[in-house]
Amino acid sequence: MKKAIYALSADPITHGHRDVVERALEVFDTLVVAIGINAAKKYTFNADERVALAKAALSGLKVEVVKFEGLLVDFAYEQGIRTIVRGVRNGTDFSFEQMLHDINYGQSMGVDTVIIISDKSLSHVSSSAVKELVNHGAKEILDYVGMPVKSALEQRLIGQIRVGVTGEIGVGKSTLCNSFQRNSDYGDVENIDLDDVGRRILTLAEEPFCHDVRRVISKKMSIPIDERGMLDVKAVSRQIFERPLVRSWFGEVMREPILYFLRKTLRKKNCLALVGSALLVEESALGVVNNNVILIKASQEERMRRLLKRGYTKEHALNRMAAQFSTKEKAQRIQHAIEVDGYGSLLELDNTDTDENALHDNVQRMETWISSLNSHRN
Question: Which residues participate in catalysis according to the annotation?
Fold first, then answer.
């Protein structure tokens, strides 16, 4: 049986590391992924955390993840393994690994090195680069690391936990989030309503690209831009909910602008970020909140009562209800995302009754559940 050791610091483990592991398993029957401990080095995550994140990132692969301290060649010899696998991304990496090989081979312990060249699509991926991207609120962190690692980095580097809050129209998402922000003992809560972000893009936002977005929407929907440079939000909404093809097109146009403003807001450090949106699932935005979602429901009768109170006609209310996934479908899709990504948590709350006692109970349940997500904050 061919055995090998793949050694790395995994601070944190990336898709580039997983690629090396997958390719090494095509050559070796047994692979030990060894997470190194160097007392002289300052790590973002301690050894046990790095091992746990590596196990999560390598889930489904037949590997053993262990930690070791001291010389790698000694550890390989102790384990009765004669081959060390190393991944290299460029010439600099190769020169360094060649030096390590020469040193290890010079110990006369019969341990050799096999080099695996990184996939060119991942050659730019490194642990340090990922940490820099997280610190600056970059766009596609999941292109570089798995969701467990992304969440851990957000908690450790910027002290932030992200939670999505969603549900069908009229379930009282804003009411519950506002109540949580006012009454919970959590601390600093950033309450972000993506509907408000969308309205800002259509009306008040002065960034040049927002003016471009408004012009595109104005032309497509034949809705004039007023003298202040704004669109009529109600007129836009009517077309979105009455014309499915327009709704789909509108979602595509607004997706990147909304995510841009969301990323800017999510740069705030040391906070709980509640990201509220009725379309969190429909717009495939679960990755932003690491599949950690509070799904709010209410009876259809109560939802209709709330929508009529807002001034909608019954017909318009029914159109808006029909334009979204049902609570059951949202829950199924969230659970599926959790299974696929191997990470996330779903809390379901009934917000039909919004008296003081009911709100207090839901806030308490939110606090307890959110506390369970807090595993990597300092």
Answer: 17, 41, 89, 127
